[in-house]
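Aim 2 progress. For Attractin-like protein 1, the working sequence is reproduced below.
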Amino acid sequence: MYKGDYSVRRVPEVVAHSGYALIHFYSDVAYNMSGFNISYRLNSCPSRLAGRNCSGNGVCIDGVCTCDAMYTGEACDLLICPNNCSYSNGECARDQHRCLCGPKYKGEDCSQVGDLGYWEVIRPRGILPNGSASHTASVWRDSLHIIGGESYGTAGMIYTYDFTGNVWETYHSTDSKTTPTPRYGHSAVIFGDKIYIYGGVKSGGVVCNELWAFDVSAKSWENITVRAEPCNSSSLCGPLKSAGHTATLVTSKRSIEKMIVIFGHSPTYGYLNTVQEYHFGTREWSIVKTHGFPVKARYGHSAAWDPLTEQIYVYGGYTSEAPASPLLSNRLYSYNPSRREWTLLSSAPSARFLHSATFLDGLMIVFGGNAHNDTSSSSGAKCYSAEALTYDVACDSWATLQLPTQLRADIARFGHSSAVFNSSLYIYGGFNGQMLNDILKYTGGSCYNLTLPMCLNTRPGVKCVWEKKIRQCVPITEVSKAILVDTHWDKDEAYYVRCPGERRSSIAANIMACSQLEDCVSCVHTSLGCGWCPHANVCSHDIVCKKPVPNSQAFTTERAVTLGSECPVVKGASCHVYHSCQTCSVQPDCVWTTYEHCVANDSLVEGPEQPVQKCGPICSELNSCLNCTNEECIWCHNEGRCVDKTAYTASFPYGQCREWTTIRNRCPVSPGESACMSHKWCSECRDAPECGWCDDGTGTGKGVCLQGGNNPPSSCPKKHWYFTHCPSCQCNGHSTCVNNSSVCVQPCGNLTSGDHCETCIPGYYGNPVNGGNCTRCECNNHGSHCFPDTGKCYCTTKGIIGDHCEKCDTQNHYHGDPTNHGSCFYDLTIDYQFTFNLSKKDDRHYTQINFKNSPPKADIDADFSITCSVLAKMNITIKTVNQPEKPLLTGHNCSNFRTRFNKNDHSFGVVDNVTLTTFFVYVYDFQTPLWIQISFSQYPKLNLQQFFITFSSLQFLNSLLGAQNTSIVP
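Predicted structure tokens for this construct:
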């Protein structure tokens, strides 16, 4: 398969020998791609071409290709002498099925120059192990030991490749109690004749902190109990449960031999920025305090030990840049295990994680990885990188290593391993949509025949330097360590030149990078030549700072701070690098805030008080879909696991989660129940690869979704089992179909409607899918319709609220009792005109609004006016003391109405706290949108003083009532 500069040589075929095959395609992330074509054949052979067996270059016999003379491979898709052996570079040996290259040339097609480094594919004899990813690789003598790895449950715990015999061997343990269970994402180092593996993800997604040692000579395992530091709630305690970390063996004459574990992901603490140490002699395990550049937590990075500089170089990874937004990193750091100090180095040209990085003769070679950093659509980043980068420690510079175009392997991959044997780099396995089990080999070139420009500018898989005295290019491994540690060893008076001149673009990039560093500690712990200007609080690419002269436009200069010891000590200064509540909370100088940020404890630093937040539940400890989705977590249905919202990539790096949710309604009905049971539609059930539909046989479409395959589970008769399709009649148990068709007989029964009887009829609510019931809306006679899912009523009278229209909206001045045939009324203040605007979307169900007013002045007539913008009816009633409510006006058009209630005909006012007369106004039978203006007034002759007092009060009342779409005027 080819697309642009990306190609996959391995034929992505699935072969089913049973006669049955289920192929399920899914995307484990929300990501849009262009799709693919698929074809299938019966009783055929592998082929690169869909329409022909054996790629058209052989004969198919019993499912196996017999290739033509010039082709090879299981699909006969490989030329035995590709590219005609690059013509004069070699010749084709047909009897050996390969090219015989000339003395200078290497590779399958003789296109690679040996002195510049070359790649080849190792083809072991005999049986190959099952492919895996995120395993470990360790070299002991002439053997490569592959331990663990994700293989979807098919691979063993340990495989051994014999470099000399070119064969694989499988280790079989006889005692399961003394053998670790399979795992991936762990780390391994070899010390003496023992391989130490730590952490990783075991079956069921369980992340562990186990330390095991495999004795290569005795072929036996030991579960090691470490001597850990005392534990308390205010500090991290090792060994941490971790996956996706790295472990590096540190060997130096000046320090004790130890294993350095860097970063990783913890189910409890999230992404880790910790450094852990294990001492082989004492078995002591500790989490060490580091200083230098404030590194952020990451997962799936690489860590490579350089014996020349005796430092660990940490590159890439999936890093936690902010509490809710982990992303890929292209940063490179060096870690000095003696000083426990971090330094920021030049960033790589691209970001990646789950790659490999290995030092080969003074040069760090980075291979493959997952470079996918897009969101919803592709911008060119590759899920499987086929890129090889080199990092030159001596020059702090990156370059791209050229890969051959003719290599009989799928180069692109991530999750692979790398190891060095006899000065060659071996790359094994990994993932490119399939688990790989192949071996790539890279052998570095030679420096001796390179000219001065080529010596300093090419990367032949080895670091070359120019020796002035003999005017020759030599490998850096021939330079003594005493000269290497001298920072001036390549000056004009020295014997060697190690780097080309620095380019202007590099200087400009360093200037920009320095200016983005915001504190002294970060500024002075880089390789970029930065210095901290304390008076300006800025980081500058200069060792001299400008300092303004007071009361003048002149400047003086001062030396920039370039040493960490010269930076001011600020407690809690590193709190910002902790991006989970649990990690922040165990830092003595830090506190987690309600804004989901880790900040310095307020008692230790100046600044406004931050609201402190207690940590919520840890997602990985939640064991059901319901309690998982109640928190800020993700539930994976097929794995039955709960993970943090930022941990999806770290938890399922190889697409192990087929279906996930953050929504409670998508959980199974009962805890422990199969996820299939949550599917109520046959079509939903069919889309889940592990589920099938068991029809109840009534011909109505009713059934149950059960876990099963092409053959039904024991609880379902075979004639009622549907795995790849659904019954034609889908009426949800509320109707049958006409003449065995898919058309439901109408009308549907059981208070349902719809083409498939999938909804409730108006006035009823519920979920009638698959035999569900519909229930009448209960709205206290103030509505007949409700939300179809919840039954919450659409109240038809403005001011009546509640799920069943059972209460008044007192906050907005509606009072009354809507139960027992009552209603709610807006209290109209005397002498004000109110405007009610019912034009919002939420007002669309209203057909009535009620008002009331009790004239307070006994000696003044009461004037009433109302205007309605659309057709509506109006009733006016009156209620007096000890008398029932009686009508005054019924069914009147309220478009524009005025009347006066004479003081001589009615008793107004209040006597002994008892209101004598109350008017009720009912406006009904309207359709929104509309507006209503209404008022009751008892005005005496005009009193100017009273007028201005009333008008001033208006502004305040309007501000209170604005949110109701109600306005008043005097």
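The longest strand covers residues 435-443. This observation will guide construct design in the next reporting period.
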